[in-house]
Batch of 2 targets.
Target 1
Amino acid sequence: MNAPMSLRSRLTVLLAASFGALLVSTGLWLGSQTARVLEKSFDESLRVLAGTVSGWTEEEDGSVELDDLAIALPEFTRESEPDYFQFFLADGTTLLRSPRLDFDLPRDTGRDDAPFDLDHEGSRLRCVCMVYRPASKLDAVEGHPEARESAPTESAPTTSNSGNTAAPMLTLIVARHRGALDALLARYRWIVALTVLAGLALSTILTSWIVAKQLRPIRDLGRAVAGLDAERLDDRIDVPEVPAEIHPLVVQFNAMLDRLEASFARERRFAANIAHELKTPICELRSLANIAMKWPDDTEAVAGFFQDVTDVSARMDRVVTDLRLVARCQAGIEPIERQRVALARIVENACRASNRDAASRSVDLRFSCKRAAHPTSERAFDVQSDASKLELIIRNLVGNAVHHADEDSVVDVVLDAHEAQTNRRIIVFEVRNRASSLDPADVERLIEPFWRKDEARSSSTHAGLGLTLVMELVTLLGARLELRLDDGDTTTLVARLQLDSAPVQPRVNSRPSKHGAIS
Amino acid sequence: MKLLLVEDSLRLQRSLRIGLERSGFRVDVAGDGKAALEWASSSSYDIIVLDLMLPKLDGLSVLRALRANENPVHVLVLSARGTPSERIEGLQAGADDYLAKPFEFDELVARARALVRRKFACKQTVFEVGPYRFDTSRRTLTCEQREIQLTNSEFRVLEYLLMRRGQAVSKQALIDHFYRGSDRGSANAIEVCVHALRKKLRDRGQGDWIRTYRGVGYGIDA
């Protein structure tokens, strides 16, 4: 597939073509206008000459006399390209012609005073025709006013028969070689054409340069983007350098890089954490196998090792199962079986299950169910949800709180409900535990897979996937989980789960929109 | 040899303890960094096998604290952090050797023995006294190519005395090195062990070369 034309090439071609069209049309217009002016000027001078020549004809006693001076004019006598004239009488006979005219000029041109071109033996002549009645010689001498009236004028050469009706009508054709004019016009057209061509070339070069210069920020942006890879995601594009038009693009791009960098960092941490998480049980298995093989006769020790191998593989199985569940939730393929669930009972069971861990860590686990606020209903804390998933969420939240709470501290588990609308309640499940080792920045990472504040992975029951799984399940069930750190006298981690006691819904297999939140 | 194993994984603790004891070490176990420092300051160890990621106090901090207290004990770091930079960091913090997890148990024992030899400035792994040949790596004692069966305690006493060849080793030093803090042995137990060892040596008809320093302890002449 051909690569698409670059923006720079497109702009250059379009702008150069526009400039070219403008230059060509301007050149054509300028050429035609100039040619017209030059021809007009040429014709004007020809008319003036015709007027001059006609002024030298006089009428005397019904015949026409011509001043000899006219014939002697250098325009008509020169060797090279002389001017011509020819007088015709009304009957078409030639009265007189210029000395170097050796052919007949056309008398009946059919054009009324309009200059016309004549080809003769390879030469082009420009001709002008004048039909007039010559002035009387007597009147001209005495200055009779009638003479002036009858004199030919440029404006009305064919209507000069108002006074001297005895004088015959003359037709004067004056011709001039137009070679010089044509050469001038040709040279001028060449100049215009060359100027247009030069303009085109210059405009193309300038357009290309200007476009390249103006598009440089985009090219730089492209280079900067091309220079980015997974190892250099901390690079950013310098925003003040870019033009205003692509400023929002760069800002968005930098923001996207921020997100990508955070995402890559999360992925790296995940990979490192999962590698580390698996390294410990692998090391345990290897060590158990090495030592059991070395002293197989120590049956008591080997039996213990086999028990350890069973425990380690069970733990690895739990990790893999949890990871698989997280993946299924994220892919939206984990089914939900909604039913009426007695949340209070689930919480009680979860607290009972964590009692042993709480006792071993001298943690006082307290559960308070604000049933007194809802004396009218035995089922004040019932919700329509997936029982097994809800149980997993509650057990993880309570278990984590107990396991990670400071030793000799209190873990408060509270279940509350308040009316939202008719027949609907908001159920709030809250766990509070003292966590003096946590920083505010840690709260955001609590749901990261395998993240632990303490890097030592000595716990055989908590792999660091609990809250990741909880958040995915909460999202899947359309509930809301808030994790926050309360800085009072002691640093307390609060996990607040909010559930809507919605009416029964049909089985849903698709993933709902994300409602999980961290604050 | 007296070894402190600092490891937070209970299963690794159990298996390594059994394996190391079977390999001739007397093993104490600490499950976190603070306990490790307490053990190291209250008793004299030939070697510490130290995990880095520990609860309460991480391994590098333990290592730095040991060196800050001028504790000369040889430390073998055992860690899941195995990149070159992490190894360098561990060695620069004062470790004498570094072994990345997962590891071969035999390699751990070989490295631990190498550190013990370094401690006693002894490059040998085989000691020869007259016709007797004591191989510390194979854990065998032979006389004219015939093996003499030794118990674990007898092996450890003999190895300890051979490492300090030419020195008098007090009974108290032997008790410290062969009994755990919670399982303190008596001088009588040491005497019984040495007596049994001497009897096995004498049975070969090559004489007894374990010397008794009256009122002090035992030794083997250089």
Target 2
Amino acid sequence: MIIDARGSYCPGPLMELIKAMKKAKVGEVLEVLSSDASSAKDIPEWVKKSGHELLEVKNEGDHWRIVVRKVK
Amino acid sequence: MRIAIVGGGVAGTLTANYLAMRLREELRSKKLEILLISEREKMLYEPGLLYLIFNRVEEKDIVKELKLLLDPGVKLLIGKAEKLDLENQKVLMKNESIDYDYLVIATGSRIVPEEIPGLVETGHWFYDLEGAKRLRNELANFKKGKVVVSVMGIPHKCPVAPIEVTFLLHDFFKLHGIRKDVEIVYTYPVNRVFTMGNVSELVEQMFADRKISSRLFFNPVEVDAKKKEIVTLEGEREKFDLLVAIPPHKGAKIIIDSGINEDGWVPTEKFTLKVKGYDNVFALGDTTDLPISKAGSVAHFQAEVLAENISAEIKGLPPTARYFGKAMCFIETGFDEATYIWFDYETPPRFVKPNKFTHWMKIAYNRMFWLTARGIL
């Protein structure tokens, strides 16, 4: 699932991921696109705390791509 | 020509009044009708609920008849708009369809406590009148135990209200000589106590001074009514004796039913407040999807911009007003001190040290608000 949160500001992208995570199935991969640089820090921190798997954090120029797998 | 405004809260009422003031001649000559459609006959001054739970104000102080707040040039229709047909320029009511030339969507936001299982049965909140009255009675009888103030979703109305209620709870229990018997815990969905960094720093220090603890990255998914525990998406459980929740919010049902957005937030152009894809439809207040506080002051400042631009278009003048994200929030830091923040899309807030004068300004504004609603202040 792709969550395109570009143009949204902190904590918008994280809250969009949290909303999607509530609905996602275990094993599902979620990809967040965010133009807010703080997402690249906040989202991995949240993923670590909540025990999911961080697959990728990548700077794509004008936005960040953060890929997460729901593991529980 | 008709301007239809859907929603009789702060955003809709102020827009109607400002438009009437600017378009007096057009109204007098019957070339124009300004129609305000509201489900409710009364307006609730929602910031007053923070005071009602401590019995500092009563219901009659914070509720007024809408018709008494409106400019005589505005036509008021009490009724439920069920759908907005933006393509055909119609507002659909139960038994009638209303055509418009300009539409202003001011349908606000609402709490959806039912989306967190167990919350309705076990929790309290102050985000509507009934909930606030229930909490007022609960607080009056609360003697000892653990109070958890829990923000259960972002965005929500009045971003600073959870911080304010936490400070006021601290003062309330202190005033009653039971602070030593009460533990206060504050929870927030992200990794700081507020969305804005510098506000967080100040509040975190003030929480520490008051021995208020916080739980961060805390996103409730359920309230376990039997065990009196909040269960989070992150896998934590937090016990409580009294839960003061800020329930999740959604936009109005009519926005969802009209297929505009699944959560009820209207896609809005940030400077002109035009609904994306439409030149004659505008949105303001809580209902927009803008990255700005859902607060009365925002609705107030946006209403000024909208009224200026819509009236300019009608008069054949250039509609050059722009909303730049202006917002102002008082922050009560106790029963006798407050601070405030001003900010916009590009300017982060700066503080004044919490002080008595700002607090008394806020208390005075709680009464003066009715002048704002009338478009005077």
